[in-house]
Amino acid sequence: MASAMKSIDVHVPVRVAYNQWTQMEFFPQFMEGVKEVRQLDDTHMHWIAEVGGKRQEWDAQITQQIPDQGISWTATGGDYNAGVVTFHDIDPNTTRVTVQLDYQPEGALEHAGSALGFMDRRLQADLERFKTFIESRQQETGAWRGEVQDHPDVERP
Length: 157
Prior knowledge:
Largest sheet: 7 strands, antiparallel
Number of helices: 3
Distance between the termini: 17 Å
Strand order of the largest sheet: 1-7-6-5-4-3-2
Radius of gyration: 15 Å
Helix content: 10-25%
Strand content: 35-45%
């Protein structure tokens, strides 16, 4: 199992940063390698990405979501990954966004990339692109303010 954790301060209110993060269909605009995220329902998503030149698809489930605080997820199919994104109110117009990602590298190329810090650099670059995206807009593209509390039926295949 490998892990990456990065933070960035974005100059928008916590509500704006959080609301934008709930619009997962926009992830390809700032996440390198993410080709598509389809929101299947309030707690399920289907991801298509390219990792190390290899197309990967997986399903994920939101396991906990608290407006303006955080979102946790876990993969329910495909390569294992799980994580949490948290939103911290620094001041009325600044939010610290922190992402922690746990993943299982597959194959020699992914293991080597993990050992060399590839995911750490990719995560930091994704957060920097999120910062540019949200600060240039100063408003979210939409929002889902629902709450998910400790979803009990997460199953791995």
